[in-house]
């Protein structure tokens, strides 16, 4: 993936853009897992009418994922709840 605008944005905001080898999903297992869940739990259940509709559906799913969806790896709490409990 190469984009002059994207690379410029990263540079301006001091973001390191890490590239992984192609066909190496294990290098990025956490996001691969999230993309799988997004596909199964959101995209597959909805008919996306246009870009804006798709954007809103995904935005809603991300909020659900972080605020309500329980995660076995987080003691069966949502990520937000896990963080709240961890800070006490």
Defining traits:
88 residues, Integrase_cat-core, 4 helices, mainly alpha, extended, Transposase_IS3/IS150/IS904, 2 domains, Integrase core domain-containing protein
The averaged pLDDT comes out at 93
> Element order, helices and strands?
HHHH
**How many structural domains can be distinguished in the coordinates?**
2
- Structural Rg: 16 Å
The span between the termini is 41 Å
Separate helix tally: 4
Helicity, as a percent range: 40-55%
Given as residue ranges, the uncertain stretches (5+ residues, pLDDT < 50) are none
Q: Into which percentage range does the β-strand content fall? A: under 5%
- The total of beta strands comes to 0
Gross geometry: extended
**How does the major sheet shape up?**
none
Structural class: mainly alpha
Describe it.
Residues 1-87 form the Integrase catalytic domain. This is Integrase core domain-containing protein. InterPro entries: Integrase_cat-core (IPR001584), RNaseH-like_sf (IPR012337), RNaseH_sf (IPR036397), Transposase_IS3/IS150/IS904 (IPR050900). There is one protein chain. The protein has 88 residues and is an all-alpha fold. It folds into 2 domains: 1-41, no CATH class; 48-88, no CATH class. It is built from 4 helices and no strands. The longest helix is centred in the last third of the chain and has 17 residues, at 51-67. The chain is extended. The mean pLDDT is 93.
Question: Which helices and strands occur, and which strands form pairs?
Answer:
Layout: H1 4-12, H2 29-41, H3 51-67, H4 79-86
Protein name: Integrase core domain-containing protein
InterPro entries: Integrase_cat-core (IPR001584), RNaseH-like_sf (IPR012337), RNaseH_sf (IPR036397), Transposase_IS3/IS150/IS904 (IPR050900)
Domain Integrase catalytic: 1-87
